[in-house]
Amino acid sequence: MRHVAALHDIAPDVADQRITEYLQRFDLETDANRRQEGYSTGMRKKVGLIQTVIHEPTVLFLDEPTSGLDPRAARTVKDLISDLSSDETTIFLSTHILSVVDELADVIGVLHNGRLVAEAPPTELKRRVEAGVERTLEKAFLELIDDAHADEMGIFDE
């Protein structure tokens, strides 16, 4: 982590402070002096995330940041994403876990076969679901994908 911080020209004292805070936040302080090859997949993922945010980027791209994590670590990651976005970091989050999207996203882009088929806030996407049905992001997503697939096949609902 110090090496990554140095690559970003972070002063050693600032780097040490941030590293300590993140190690505590991710419950890794007791393992900080262990070699990474002994770390579990979840621990490695947490270290990678710390390395990604240590320089306080203004734009961040995250791909499936909670996959492979236990529920407590996943909650920590979601809280970190929320904190970063509150601090005006723009975050592009790619995930199939719709509960994470529903909780964290301001705007959702739905991709189908590499094409953007919808872009809107979660509440707007849920409003598009058929009336009389429980309005969830999952149902909205499935409906959007079904509609996109029908358009591709030339099938239109009359």
Describe this protein's structure.
The protein is of the alpha+beta class and 158 residues long. The protein has a domain at 107-158. The chain contains seven helices and four strands. The strands form two sheets. It has a two-stranded parallel ribbon with strand order 1-2. Strands 3-4 form a two-stranded antiparallel ribbon. It is elongated and about 60 Å long. The model has no long low-confidence stretch (mean pLDDT 87).
In short:
This protein has helices at 2-7, 12-25, 41-53, 71-86, 98-104, 122-127, 137-153; strands at 59-63, 90-94, 108-112, 115-120. It has 158 residues and is an alpha+beta fold.
Architecture blueprint of SSEs:
Blueprint: H1 2-7, H2 12-25, H3 41-53, E1 59-63, H4 71-86, E2 90-94, H5 98-104, E3 108-112, E4 115-120, H6 122-127, H7 137-153
Parallel strand pairs: 1-2
Antiparallel strand pairs: 3-4
